[in-house]
Amino acid sequence: MEFEVFDIGLFDFRRAWQFQREVFKAVKNGGLKSALVVCRHYPVITLGREASLSHILAPQKELKERKIAIYKIERGGGVTYHGPGQLTMYPVFNLDYLKKDIHWFLRKLEEIAMLCLSDFGISSQRRPGLTGVWLGEQKIASIGIAIKSWITFHGLSINVKKDDLANFRLIRPCGMDIEMTALEAVLGRAVEIDSLKNQLIQIFRKTFLNSIVKVPPERQRGGNSHD
Amino acid sequence: MTKVILPELGEGITKATVSYWYFQTGEKVNEKDDLVELTTDKATFNLPSPCSGTLSEVFFSEGDTVNVGEALAVIE
Q1: Contact predicate A164/A143, CB 8 Å
Q2: pTM of the full structure
Q3: Of A101, A143, A149, which has the smallest distance from its Cβ to B42's Cβ?
Q4: Which of A53, A139, A170, B48 could anchor a disulfide with A58, C-beta 3.0 to 4.6 Å?
């Protein structure tokens, strides 16, 4: 499946959320087949559907002083932190072109993060019932998505920069006592965000280009073949 | 009368949790309106209304677990 890439750089979460919705509309209307929004965020806390405000550990005063906003959003999962030291990938994918299978898609997002890490010689794992990508007990990539009309949004974030890790202490990630890690912390050296970003986009392409499972009914009626 | 059924959500997915009702019993809904949001794993899934009418009955509350193939609500 082909998809458009929107690399919007360091972007305020609220504006990126709005942008995702615009892209979603374009995919739903058929203006775009599918799209991948790639960005980083200024520090922000988001609450998925399973989150509770009690999972935010930092005092309101501290968050206010540091201008860290909190957003309740429509994705699955609990509370998470996003910051400029993470790469965030929002696949706005029409699963009609792929496979209408929620867990299949979640596993694909995990696979992408795992393939990316393996390029650095890092062996990562899935943990049953704990969606995301792990290095033993430490989590390095988080996933939370929403699906409407079988079109996905929200997505995957990978912790890259070591100096952003401390901010996870502001929350109880996913409402659990999870220790987070980052690519730089594991490698013991700096990682350039831009090259990692391009690498991830390539992995997304390879993973989903070969993932055409079915053709949407309207295309079948039109007699078109796979594209 | 149309029953709103929880559709297949993927291989091996037998149930989902109701996370949000967009409408309350007695309210008018249009076909394709987001009717109910369900959660499975780290994903939310919006089920649209299959037809226009009045949401006359809701069988599951937010937080309840529903099996694939079960009726969630009735629209008349």
Answers
A1: no
A2: 0.92
A3: A143
A4: A170
